[in-house]
Amino acid sequence: MKLTIPLSTLFLLLTTNLFSQTIEDLKLKNKEIPKSYIVNQGNVCISPQACTFYNDIETYSNIVGKLKSKQIQSFKSKTDSGSIMYFEFEQVFKGDRFLQGMLWRKDGEPTVEHPEEYLAKGKFLIIWSFHSDSPIKEKSETKVETLLQ
Hints:
Blueprint: H1 7-18, H2 23-26, E1 38-40, H3 48-55, H4 61-64, E2 67-76, E3 81-89, H5 96-104, E4 117-121, E5 124-129, H6 135-147
Antiparallel strand pairs: 1-2, 2-3, 3-5, 4-5
């Protein structure tokens, strides 16, 4: 007897995996963390605005959307430290302009004082609170951008 799978079912099975990313998938795994870094507990944000956004995200829900979940990873090395903040929203993240103003103030882009960068893609928002030349930030950005294409 020949088993046949309708093309629509096969397509659904293949695409479900593409759109079923979770925060756990986006986080750096132990083997991906550069050897010079150690995991740090709590928030290690470069500027306080990034940690305020993470800690008080529910306060801004009418602007950015309803939060489904959030997690943070913090790292330290001899020359670098910071946090990666992961957010998943119920719907598509809608707070770009608000977040830019909160993180960068009137500058409208990262500065030495406010170096945070972020990526908003669909329901996910990731904020990197590291200096621009951070190796761990670059590793995380590459992973996240690849998974959220």
